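Hey, quick one: can you model this chain's 3D structure?
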Amino acid sequence: MRVSPVRSALLLTLAFALPLAGCSTTGNKKKGGDSNRYVARDVDTLYNAAKDQLDKRNYKAAGAIFDEVERQHPYSIWARRAELMSAFSYYLAHSYPESIQASQRFLSIHPGNRDAPYAMYLIAVDYYEQIGDVDRDQKISQQALDAMGDLTRRYPDSKYAADARLKVDLINDHLAGKEMTIGRFYQRRHDWLASVIRFRRVADNYQTTSHTPEALERLVESYLELGVLDEARRTAAVLGANYPGSDYYKRAYELIQKRANKA
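Sure thing. Here's the predicted structure for all 263 residues.
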């Protein structure tokens, strides 16, 4: 899953890319040397060197130099800006653990800052970007869901909350897809009780996702295989009430009719 770096860059630029009046962009460097060497430099030179690397799309180098701004000048007014710019730079570099660490450091030092919602959003998006396919472990998905939830609960009116809510829906759909994959696996093995547990979890915990009608239909299949006809009928009724025109309801209805005719 990928969030547009351009969109994020525009958001951050509005808050942070303020020019440093009257400062040089050259820095103190020896001829032929590495401009990113972490020697002691004044805050203006360091900050502008980091900004220059960011403009050149050398994102990881930018993050490292922004870190130096904070390390060498922790009490400067630019240290706070550099902390979050570091997190943003590492995000653009796809160095998500470093971005999360930098964002968390910002929140620990400036918990009530007006840019705290953005720091929380960066953490959530860092996790979100790492979500893999449904066949892989979903720990990251849960971390993304938790981070998005924290943001919307603490800052429900922030400009990042709406995007976070949308991503919560997408993450839930992803997690439901994982449960469906496992449930189908158990069905192929004729492990009907295990499949019921997985499909029931989708029906109960991810009701608004795209996987719900299939989960209900597969629950009907599994209940019928277990010989629990009444539960199969109740599940089919729920499916019919919520998805009356779906192919899943038609199949569930046919399965129940077939089982009733055999009885």
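One thing worth noting: The domain at 5-106 is CATH 1.25.40 (Serine Threonine Protein Phosphatase 5, Tetratricopeptide repeat).
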